[in-house]
Design brief:
GO molecular function, one term (chain C): oxidoreductase activity
CATH topology of the largest domain in chain B: Ubiquitin-like (UB roll)
CATH class of the largest domain in chain B: Alpha Beta
Radius of gyration of chain B: 17 Å
Organism (chain C): Sphaerisporangium rufum
CATH architecture of the largest domain in chain A: 2-Layer Sandwich
Keywords (chain C): FAD, Flavoprotein, Oxidoreductase
Number of helices of chain B: 5
Distance between the termini of chain B: 42 Å
Order of helices and strands of chain B: EEHEEEHHHH
Chains: A alpha+beta (796), B alpha+beta (174), C alpha+beta (297)
Number of domains of chain B: 2
CATH topology of the largest domain in chain A: Aldehyde Oxidoreductase, domain 4
CATH superfamily of the largest domain in chain A: Aldehyde oxidase/xanthine dehydrogenase, molybdopterin binding domain
Structural class of chain B: alpha+beta
CATH superfamily of the largest domain in chain B: Beta-grasp domain
Protein name (chain C): Carbon monoxide dehydrogenase
Distance between the termini of chain A: 71 Å
Oligomer: heterotrimer
Amino acid sequence: MSTRLFGEPVARREDGRLVTGQGRYLDDLGHDALAAAFVRSPHAHARIRDIDVSAALDADGLVAIYTYEDLPERVRDPLPLLIPHPALTHGRTAYPLARDVVRHVGEPVVMVVARDRYLAEDAAALIEVDYEQLKPVVGVEEAVQGAHLVHQDVPGNVGAHLVQEVPSPGGAGAEQEVDAAPHRLSFRLDIERSASMPLEGRGVYARWDADDGSLRVYSSTQTSTSVRMAVAAKLGLPLPKVEVIAPDVGGGFGVKIVHPWPEEVLVPWAAMLLGREVKWTEDRREHFVASAHERAQVQQVRVGFDDEGRVLGLSVTILHDHGAYTPYGIIVPIITATQLLGPYKIGAYRVEFSSIYTNTVQVTPYRGAGRPQAVFCMERTMDKIAAYLGRDRAQVRAANFIQPDEFPYDQGLLFQDGRPLIYDSGDYPESLRLLKELVGWDDFHEVKAEAARHGRRLGIGIGCYVEGTGVGPYEGGHVQVTSDGRVHVSTGLTSQGQGHETVFAQIAATELGVPLDRVSVVTGDTRRFGYAVGTFASRAAVLSGNAIALACRKVREKALRVAAEALEADPRDLEIEDGVVRVAGNPGAGVPLATVAVLSNPLRYAFDEEAVRATQFAGTADLSRPPVDDGDEPGLEGRDYYSPVRSTFASGMHAAVVETDPDTAEIRILRYAVVHDCGRMINPMIVEGQIHGGVAQGVGGALYERMVYDGHGQLLNASFMDFLMPYATEVPYIQTAHLETPSPLNPLGIKGAGEAGVIPVSAVIASAVEDAEGIPVDRMPISPSELHELRRTSRR
Amino acid sequence: MSGKRGWPVGEALHEVSLTVNGVVRQARVPARRLLSDFLRHDLGLTGTHVGCEHGVCGCCTVLLDGAPVRSCLTFAVTVAGQEITTVEGLAGPDGEPSPVQRAFAECHALQCGFCTPGFLCTVTALLRDNPEPDELHIVEGISGNLCRCTGYQNIVKAVGRAAELAREGGEGTA
Amino acid sequence: MKPPPFDYHAPHDLDEALAVLAGTGGDGKVLAGGQSLIPLMNMRLAAPAHLVDINRLAGLATVEAGADGVRVGALARHAEVERSERVAQVQPLLRSALGHVAHPVIRNRGTVVGSLAHADPSAELPAVLAVLGGSVRVARHGAPPRDVPAGEFFLGPLEPALAPGELAVSAFFPAVPPRTGTAFVEVARRHGDYAMAGVAAVVTLDDDQRIAAALVACVSAGPVPVVLDLTAACGRRPAASTDWAAVAAEVRDRVDPDGDIHATAGYRRHLTGVLARRALRIAAAEAAGEYGWTDER
């Protein structure tokens, strides 16, 4: 039986429990826990004059009501600003419960704890908060006028301002290059808000063990280790007395990387105070107004180019809407600014962004994290250049590509991790060739003309991207082989549906030469692994995957050493196959890993058959050496970390064929093609699943989803009735092709794959609709109503 | 008794008895207890998930007398005496996963798994009513269930595969 | 998102239901399928003091299709009506409209009469009842039931002609007269969503295959289903020579939809015209005995 499982479409090990209802998500735990609910601000901007809880005090099942005034030191402090940056001169975070001023609809004001959630909501409804309404600030362009302020001490509502500039090889600045270029264009682009919107909302469940002085917290999070550190610090508990576990997580897509959420501080605090288990399960309405959104930007572009369409100078100015607070710093606009160049060599580049406060839900990364906006900008630019020159859109892109022999390619920018943005590998011309073939690019004009003869309007669009994945600082892996021959793998980062239990097991099984079913994987449980960063930035496979491989290599080395002694062989002659260490080419002589595990531990109580069996290998003890040698450890286990010197850059190209209805302006995607390169694939089935899901979210962002705020800062579509996530009926069939350009940066040669699918979709659909209609599409998403209005206004 | 006049102390409880996955189960609950919460919190069958509580996402779909319905848009007391099948009841009597369950795993039709129980119940009924659906019927049949992870392509594939498995096994899917 | 408490009543027959409803003094709501009411309660946008659950009134779970039309009882689910071949024969418009009502799973629980009593101008069934000139039978405790014509039943958005204590026990959808075709078309943002615009059309031909009557009801085009008689606009010509564009223009001019976050008023108006044209052409073709038109976009 082969143990080369790396690269195979192995069936997922998670699915057995998930298809039988045996998964355990946050709200499935804590059957007897008290329930928390929150009174949240109905206003976008208001001063709290008074909170009257008296009517709620007699509510059935009420246990406790807390306002800001009730919170102790540390708990009452503003939530941490996770990722400070010198350009974020005016970072602001919320209090866990509002103090004096609320800055968006949905901000928590009062916490209620009751016997169950029904009763908690009953009590919450009886609490009266008296607000003095303040002028809300909505929309970045209104906000930068500075007439009204979200935070009184942030002038002009500007939280951050950053300029990055990469001069041309000749030393000229981007503006200068644009001015000097043979052709110039300038235009404005808009992208609206969407959100991660996992089907499981957030949730926290805490148990305080007063006898042990310890706290166990379950959270539907993308980072249990960091929630643990935050909770321990906020509650003043020693770190070893706090454990945080991410159970099965029903999707994250970015929103669950933010931490600690107010509820992640308040629920454990209440559990300690009350000496009772407390649980809060976010409902859908709360998720809309009290978690996080992303995407909204206004971009001003100036570009100069030559007759071939080669970009000589590009200058982009971005207004980024970061909502009411900046707990996650300015990661999103930094990524937009630095990933904008995609697979292209640009003569000179200047990017300037201002990150702006508005009285809306805070903006933190959602799958793609600033890249969809970046790619929208760059790819719209490419299309406009092609249109201006009357050239083929693919050809203009090809003219700008970085060539395969130019790697590593330094874009001259600082990436989100503060490290140089250097592309490690890729093959963009080959990607484009594959894509054109897959979608039938070169013949499309015939298809289009034929359709037109039947009164149908078709268009084709294209979008290319490069995605920095696998950012540091590190992840770790721990691998233990127990005396029953089982392999226990753990890593600190979490999973929210990507199949980590499967891919990490594939890596361990391959590295150790054991059957897959002997490997078990635990993620996101601080009881098993304490140091981790989290699951975001398409980093899990790259970081934890490599860390686990390195840990396995340590285990393997020890296993060979121990087995070599038992077999009286040279470790270099040994191999592990099907869980047995044997002399290569000699199937007879071997010792199972289970036995090696026993031999690795000089404490030889014969608890099981393996230990009994192992005694036959117990050689004469060298009495001059201690039972555990210096530098050695008992047991067959290994721990290692992978810390990348910098990010690895995946890439891809998408194309779509759309049909627009000449009468109703409905937009239908007829074909969708993806070429994707994430280096070596651990499990192609899972990679493909990630792409499908990403594209579907991209389709949502391109044609359906938006957060509609009115001028009062009210979110008008805070329900699944009106926030239109695509159903099966809205998502096209997706054709995929893979290119595997290994990353030279890590032992496994892999790159991240989680976010890729979503990144270019808005750009691709805009390109295709523009091609079908012959009208510039500069604002996404686009609905039939908007296309109708575009047609009307362009006719004038 | 209405919200504006203050909440009741000690809301009236109703004895609700249902046959769930073939077993008679009962609990005393207020009339407002949603079937989803009744199953999850009163009976401990947490396989039925709650994703929106306004009937759009389909995560909470269960079979009521064989027909898929939203358990978040049903009061438990309303369906007293009726038969419910949840995801925990889809496997065969010996615990053998149903063709639909097997097909979903085989085709990678789930990622985070949160929407999956609702899809499994919906598809189980779909294939019972139409054992050989074409792709249009499949897409229409699952069109009331949201999935945020898979992009649906593998779910559509899994429904077709489940139909095949059911035919191969010569058995029904319910 | 948990519903507020209420007093629960589960009557076993109609008399008991009406008596209970009468006793709630106007602070009671009827619970049938609950697919519109319960979301509102879960969001605490509705908080009825009393809920009268009619799900045990088996006598209301009826679908009767006779020569003169289809009578649907208050407990008949959308799915039952949609599946009934007899209903499809007597009044095909019902099946074509029901296919657009939310999603199949919702239709398993939601009721036709409940949808009418919800009186949402964006919903399909009120338009169907209106264009067919159907009626709703309304009962109250201690009085004989009365039939309210569709034209009088829909008073405004979510405002049916139901007084406190009254229960809509059934709805009647008249059969298609001879030489008559029907069609229902709509455009929604996503499949199964409320329509941005929709049109139910009924076209009757005379013995010479000329248009004798043409009627549409427009969805999401006003506070109630907007019924327009287009007979004159069609000009008693054969369908093939009718100026459908002019007829559609008349529809466009006569509706006055509101804009919302999904569609501007102007787009809805435009779309209503486009859909009226499509629906009328399909209905006229069907009336003329030409089938296979229903796939026309």
